Amino acid sequence: MSNPLRSIARLALSAPARHDARHEWARRLRGEPILPDGRMQRLLVLCHGNICRSPFAAALLAARLPSLEVRSGGLHAADGDPADATAARCAERRGVSLAAHRSARVNAGSLDWADLVLVMQGSHVAEIERGWPGFVPRVRLLGDFLAEPPYLLPDPWGHEEAVFERVFTRLAEAVERLALRIEKRQAVSS
Question: Of 23, 127, 109, whose CA–CA distance to 71 is shortest?
Fold first, then answer.
């Protein structure tokens, strides 16, 4: 099956894929997101299980923006799981240790703690809209800060290491561009 046909079939079958596609096209039309108003001191990075993407992105953000508090969590995480072994190896090659990481499931308290909530896919935004609609104004897709599409950052879990490498490279690019935006905002407000 060709790529466009495969995409259409996936959209017809999967609600999360439909949310991801809608978000991808909306991002292409509206451009780079605006950061939420107000202070920017606490960042929460979310993914599905909090064992691959979000711990890596949170570690990068914490190192890049040491004046901010950064945490990670998962929309469907089991509390206390270590980082995925492949994720840990890929992160280690980039100078990031995930050895001490333990997963945490997101809840209203963790969302309330954060000034900015970063997710990986449009389906994650949709989940927050359904479960905690009051926090949606704080939510941004981390990949929306990338210079070029695709903007969603797919889950590499269960895939070969090359997939992790591609996703982690995009995560690092998105983190750097977001960090520059936050630094610029902080310089203007001080």
Answer: 109
**The token pair that represents 116 in the structure block:** 């900015």
For the beta sheet containing 139-141, the strands, ordered from the edge strand earlier in sequence to the opposite edge, are 69-74, 42-47, 116-119, 139-141
Q: Which residues, other chains included, contact 26 with Cβ-Cβ below 8 Å and sequence gap of 6+?
A: none
Query: Residues 110, 42: contact at Cβ < 8 Å?
Result: no
Q: Is 47 a catalytic residue?
A: yes
Cα–Cα dist 32/142, whole Å: 11
Q: Give the pLDDT confidence of 131-182 residue by residue, as tens digits.
A: 999 999 999 999 999 999 999 999 999 999 999 999 999 999 999 999 999 9
Active-site residue (options: 20, 27, 52, 53)? 53
Q: Is 53 a catalytic residue?
A: yes
Q: What is the pLDDT of residues 10-62, one digit of tens each?
A: 555 688 888 888 889 988 998 899 999 888 999 999 999 999 999 999 999 99
Q: What is d(CA 52, CA 72) in angstroms, rounded to the nearest whole number?
A: 11
| Alpha helices, DSSP H, located in the chain | 3-13, 15-30, 53-64, 85-93, 108-113, 122-131, 161-189
Choosing from 47, 90, 144, 170, the catalytic residue is: 47
Q: Of 22, 42, 64, 155, which residue is the catalytic one? A: 155
Q: Are 111 and 36 in contact (CB under 8 A)?
A: no
